[in-house]
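Minutes, methods subgroup
Present: GH (chair), OT, SY

1. OT presented the first of two proteins processed in the latest run. Sequence and C-alpha cells recorded below as shown on screen.
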Amino acid sequence: MRRQPRHAGSLARFLTSAAVTAVLAAGLGGCQTMSDITGSLTSSSSKAQAVPDDPRRAAEVYGERYRANPKDAEAALGYGQALRATGQRAQAVAVLEQATIAHPGNKALLAAYGRALADNGNAQAAFDVLGRAHSPTNPDWRILSVQGTTLDKMAKHEEARGYYAAALKIVPEEPSVLSNLGLSYMLTRELPQAEETLRRAYANPRADGRVRQNLALVVGLQGRFTEAETIAKGDLPADEATANVAYLREMLSRKDKDNSRPPGSKATVPVAALNRPD
C-alpha cells in the first residue's frame, strides 16, 4: 500500500473544512424558495398568497404574523425559513424549536427545524430531528439527503452514503443528491470518485451553479487548475465567472499554504467551496 504524503493530514483538514459547508449548502439546492424541505404548509388565505419572494421582505411579513401569534404553525415555518435564507441561523433555530414544541407532530416544522440545526452546525441534533420528520414507509428524499450531510459532518461517511443511496432510489440521478455524494467522497480524499459523481450531477439539465462549482473544486484539488477554471467559468456572465475563478484560486492557494505548514500546526482554510451561503 502506498504511503500517504506527509502533508496528507493538512489536505484532509482542508477537505473537511472546505466541504462541510458546501455539503450543507448543496443539500437541497439552497433556499431558492421558502419551502425547501417538505413544502410549505398549504393555505388558501390571502395572507399566505401575499408573501413576497424576497427573503428579507418575507422575514418581515412572516415575522409580523409570528409575533402576533407565535403558535401559528404556518407563520413560524415561513419565518424560520426566511431567517435561514437571510443568514440568521441561530434565530431560525430558536423560532422553529418553539414551533415544534407547540406542534410536536408537524412534520414540515420538524423538517425545517432539522435543516436549521444542520445550518447552525448542530449535526447530531439535526440528524435526530430529521429522523422524526418522515418515516420509513413514507420517506422524503430531501430529508434523506440532508441526513446524509449531517452524517458526513460527523465523519460517518459510509453511513452518509447509505442515505444518499436511499434518496437516489426515490429520485434517480437527482443532481443535488449526487452533489452531496460527490462531496462526501471529497471528504475522504477519494477525488476521482468524487469527480465522477459530480460529473454525473453536472450532466443533468436540472443541476444548478453549485454543482459546477463543486466539480471545479474537486478538479482543482487534483492539480488540473486550467480545467478547473474552465468549469468554474462555464457560461456565466463575465463578472460572475471572474469572481468564481478568483475564489477558486484563493482556495487552492490557501490549500497549498496549509500543505507547507509543519505537521500538527493549525490550518486556516476557506469554508465555502465556491458556494454562496444559503
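2. SY then presented the second protein from the same run.
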Amino acid sequence: METIINFFSEHQLQIIAIAKNTLLTIFILIGASICSKLLKRAVHKGVYRLSKHDEIITKLLTTLSGYVVYLIAIVIILDLFGVNTASLVALVGAAGLAIGLALKDTLSNVAAGVMLLFLKPLKKAEFVEVSSYTGSVKDLGLFTTVLETADGVFVSIPNSTVWANAIKNFTRNEKRRMDITVGISYGDSIEDGLAALRELVSEESRILIEPAPQYLVHTLADSSVNLQLRAWVATPHYWDIYWQTQRKIKDKVESKGITIPFPQRDLHIINGDKK
C-alpha cells in the first residue's frame, strides 16, 4: 500500500494529466458520435434535395461526412496525448503514396467512380448498356457498378471499365423512336402497305404526334420491298408499344390483300443424256 502511495506521490501530475486526457477523450468520442449523426442527417437532406433525389451520391457523401468527423476527433485525441500530429500526417501521406502505387488499379476505380457519381451518365434504376452488358443499374459505388440484366443476372463491372467505355442509356431521354419493318411482295401495292402502317398508328393512341410518324420504303431486298414505320413514343411505354405493334402488323398488312414474302429457293433438275 505504501508503495502505491509513494508511486502516486511521485507521479501525481502525470496520473492526473492522463486521467484528464482520458476523460476528454471519452467526451470527444461522444461528441464526435453526436456530431457525426447530426452532420450526416443534415448532409443527407441537403444533398438529396440538391442532387434531385439521387440516392447513390447522397449515400456516398453522407457516409464520407461521418468519417470526416471521426478523423478530426482522432487527430484532436492524439494531440491531447502529445503525439506529433504533423509528423503523423507526413507518415500517413508517405504510407498513402506507397499504398496508392500498390493499388493503382483499385484507385483508378475510385477515381472513375467519383467521376460517374458527379457527372451522372447513369443513375440507379436506369436501363443501360455498358461494355457489352445490358441491364438496370442497381448500385453505383466507389469501386464497382452493379447491373441486373433483363433475365435477372447479377453483373458487377469495375468503374474504370465503365468510365473507359461508351455508355448507352436507354431511359435517360423522355422519348424514343420505334422502328418497325415489314416486307411486302414486289407484286403488291406499296401505297396499300403504307396505308396499313398508317392504320396501325391511328389505332395506337400512345404514339406521339410530334415528331410526326414516318412511313418509308426502306430497302428493295432480294425477295421483298421492305417498308418501315418510324414513330416516337414515351420511353416508359417503348417496349409495350413495340411488341403490340409487331403482333398486329401481320394481320393488318394481310387485311389489305398484301402478301408478306419469305425467302424461297426453286430447284430445277435438268435430266441430261448419259454417255
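Chair's summary of item 2: Residues 168 and 211 are 22 Å apart (CA to CA).
Next meeting: continue with the remaining queue.
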